[in-house]
Specification:
Elements (H helix, E strand, L loop, with lengths): L4 H9 L5 E11 L8 E7 L3 E8 L2 E9 L2 H10 L1
Length: about 80
């Protein structure tokens, strides 16, 4: 898991009652710089939503299982 993602998932997403599960995905190395974790809502899926987390020069997909992807999108955008 990329730097800061585990803490983000535990402190922010695990507290939401409409989240049924979280599946960390593939880690890719990108060209961006910076140490701060940035999480963005990418799109809705059949089982919930896909997020993209960026920290340093690493990107990681995060799949969230929920019946309310629009609620999740609002929470992520408000962070």
């Amino acid at each position: 898991m990329i730097k800061g993602l585990k803490e983000f998932l535990e402190e922010k997403l695990s507290l939401l009652d409409f989240i049924e599960g979280v599946i960390p995905g593939e880690i890719k190395v990108g060209n961006a710089t910076g140490e701060r974790l940035v999480v963005k809502y990418k799109y809705s899926t059949i089982s919930g939503a896909k997020l993209i987390a960026r920290s340093g020069n690493s990107n990681q997909e995060v799949f969230v299982i929920t019946k309310f992807p629009e609620k999740l999108k609002k929470v992520i955008e408000d962070l």
